[in-house]
Design goal:
There is one protein chain. By secondary structure, the chain is of the alpha+beta class. The protein has a single domain, classed as HU Protein, Chain A (Irregular), CATH 4.10.520.10. Helix content is 37%, strand content 34%. The protein is built from 2 helices and 5 strands, in the order αβββββα. The chain has helices spanning 5-24, 70-78; strands at 29-31, 35-42, 45-48, 55-58, 61-68. The protein has a 3-stranded antiparallel sheet with strand order 1-2-5. A hairpin with a 3-residue loop joins strand 1 (29-31) and strand 2 (35-42).
Length: 79
């Protein structure tokens, strides 16, 4: 795009900072033609260590989910 590398890096970092701040506020982010990022709350549950078969409680947490748009899926399929 003809921009200097350091200026491009600042722009990209600003975009990612904005994405991070928006997700921290529990808001979804839709990028047209790309997909949607959401925050999902997961409840606590009992998991199992596959090696020892020991049951372990998995604490509740928030996770980021991503759903690709149909346009992105089609582009990947054609590649």
């Amino acid at each position: 795009m003809g921009l200097p590398r350091n200026e491009t890096q600042l722009i990209v970092e600003a975009v990612f900072d904005t994405l991070k701040e928006t997700l921290q506020k529990n808001e979804s982010i839709k990028v047209s033609g790309f997909g949607t990022f959401n925050i999902r709350n997961k409840n606590s549950r009992v998991g199992r260590n596959p090696k020892t078969k020991e049951e372990v409680e998995i604490t509740p947490r928030r996770v980021i989910t991503f759903k690709a748009s149909d346009q992105l899926k089609e582009a990947v399929e054609k590649a």
